[in-house]
Amino acid sequence: MNLLDIVVATAQMPLVGAAPAGGGLSMLVMPVALIAVMYFLMIRPQMKRQKEHRAMLDKLSKGDEVITSGGIAGTVVGLGDNFVTVEIANGVQVRVQKAAVGNVLPKGTLKSA
């Protein structure tokens, strides 16, 4: 047997009693990092959008021009706790849930359209 055979045989032998690669701390860091990334990329922006939508609904008043989530554009003629009455044409009023109001348009947008 030459020296090269001994080195190759020694390199191929499994280590007995060796610690597993990546200790306990590094095993914990990866899931925590993934949760942090998910929070900042998905959860936090969604919460911010919900907060802005709630603030927009709280400021809603009669005469505002709105677009509902279904795509109906009209003018707010009545407000309730949970529902909004929107006039979509002269004398045509629909009642929608307040949460279905998607956007408040600048004044005069519907007349120019």
UniProtKB/TrEMBL annotation:
Pfam families: YajC
Membrane topology, record value: Single-pass membrane protein
UniProt entry tagged with the keyword Transport: yes
Keyword presence, Membrane: yes
Ranges that cross the membrane: 20-41
Major subcellular site: membrane
SMART domains referenced in this protein's UniProt entry, alphabetically: YajC
Gene Ontology CC: plasma membrane
Subcellular locations according to the entry: Cell membrane
Keywords linked to the UniProt accession: Cell membrane, Membrane, Protein transport, Translocation, Transmembrane, Transmembrane helix, Transport
GO BP: protein transport
Highest taxon in the source lineage: Bacteria
Family: Belongs to the YajC family.
Annotated protein name in UniProt: Sec translocon accessory complex subunit YajC
